[in-house]
Amino acid sequence: MIGVKQKGFCLQKRAYFTKYRLKSLIGKDLSITSPSPARPERLGSAGMAYNFTVARYALIGSPVSHSLSPLIMERLGLSYNAHEVLPGKVDAFLQNEAPHLDGFNVTSPLKEEIIPFMASLSPEAWEIRGVNCAARKGDSWEGHNTDYLGILVAIDYLGLTPEKALVLGTGPGARSAAFALARMGAKSTMVSRKPGSGRLTWNQLGTDPLEGYGLVINATPPGTVSLPARHLGPHNFVLDMNYGERANGIRTAVAGTSAGYSDGLPVLLGQAAGSLEIWLGGDFGDWRERVFSVARELGLL
Fold it and tell me: CA nearest 281: which of 58, 116, 52, 9?
């Protein structure tokens, strides 16, 4: 069910993690470690822009031309560019472009492909099996996942308190959503083309399943699925992880129903705040406030 916003809903991450090593499922050793200690002296007062003349950051994936991340990050004062990197071309990017960067974000379809190139993973990235944020550590890279923070921020921003959620998809974005929901004590069920333990197939989606889930999260690429909108009602809220024109399909499907709806802009802002905390230190709540402030200045919210 969806209710009023819970007071005191905490989105704070653990600041440090115990370091240990284990064998990767991809056949190499990966260290699971912690972000660098916070460096609050590098932050200005709330609402102020930054002017980092040395540090450089980027976004990689395909497509990236639609992304609002460069606009938001540059307004904050970062040097941040989008690079179109196709599957199979990650190694070339890391050899030619990454040496000039201090960190980069990773979007679809590279969040799993990038993992073997990381020297270490955060516990979240390891469990989710997806990296959307890389931070430099000497001559190597640490892989992190801040997508789950984006989901938590979006749920909090929208004033939702889901007890059960339906997650459309089973990829890194969907696993981030399930991870976030588990963190806040909510149950989730994934929907996939292929049957599997603890998941539904698209053919199994009907009136009963949708009535039982107050929150529906779309974690599939645009045009991948056809949301069974005829089964949506006022008891449902649909959160699409896509935003802008890429959310038009789900947005249109929900528009003719009595269900609530949001595109993925709050998710983007939340994961951006998490990336900034990892790269630059400071407090996640402060970064969240700054990123949302910039989004409002740009007329995005």
Answer: 52
Helix (H) or strand (E) holding 211: helix 207-211
**What CATH number did the domain enclosing 287 receive?**
3.40.50.10860
Distance CA 208, CA 200 (A): 12
Is there a single domain that holds both residue 218 and residue 140?
Answer: no
Residue 220 in 3-state DSSP? coil
Number of domains within the chain: 2
Domain match, 140 and 289 both: yes
String of DSSP letters for 27-95: SSEEEE--PPPP-GGG--STT-----SS-EEEEEESS-TT-SHHHHHHHTT-EEEEEE--TT-HHHHHH
For the chain, first and last CA: distance in Å?
25
CA 26 distance to own-chain centroid: 22
Quick count: other Cβ atoms within 10 Å of Cβ 48? Answer: 12
Query: Is 132 in the same domain as 155?
Result: no
**pLDDT, tens digit, for every residue of 30-79?**
555 543 333 333 333 334 445 555 579 999 999 999 999 999 999 999 99
**Same domain as 141, residue 173:** no
- Catalytic residue check, 111: yes
Which residue among 5, 23, 28, 111 is the active-site one? 111
Residues 230 and 170 in one domain: yes
Q: What is the pLDDT of residues 179-236, one digit of tens each?
A: 999 999 999 999 987 777 777 887 777 666 677 899 999 999 998 877 878 888 999 9
The 10 Å Cβ neighbour count of residue 75 is 18
Instruction: Judge whether 3 lies within some domain.
Output: no
Which one-letter amino acid corresponds to residue 115? I
Query: Do 105 and 159 share a domain, yes or no?
Result: no
3-state helix, strand, coil in the chain (%, to 5): 35, 20, 45
Domain assignment of residue 58, given as a range: 49-145+274-297
Residue type, 144: H
